Amino acid sequence: MDSPIDFSLADVNRNNIVFGVQGDFFKLHDGVRLHDAAGDPFVTLRKKIMTAHSRWQVFRGNSIESKDLLFSARKSSMLQVKTKLHVFLANNTAEDVCDFKVKESSSHDSVPFMLETLPQ
């Protein structure tokens, strides 16, 4: 049984589609695509299978080829109460140090995320 993901996010003031999401929940290795209002994919998110830290890769457009990798993200640890991600840009192949950190804030009304730039 397939479980397709297909929804759009719209500007609530104008009811214009901002972007949409398409994919298949049980086939995340094929990628989930974010597309613009015209339906053209601008990034593909792909979950890596068999990783300890729930790694996701993000590719340019409709691709899942390594040459189109933009960045990857993984949980900073396997057990977390609040989401903390380490983000590695495509040219950071060693992944000794992450390029960015993204963490869930402590707000109870919503789930905002904060981007933390690391010192050079």
UniProtKB/TrEMBL annotation:
InterPro entries for the chain: LOR, LOR_sf, Tubby-like_C
Family membership: Belongs to the LOR family.
Identification of the protein by name: Protein LURP-one-related 15
Organism of this sequence: Morella rubra (Chinese bayberry)
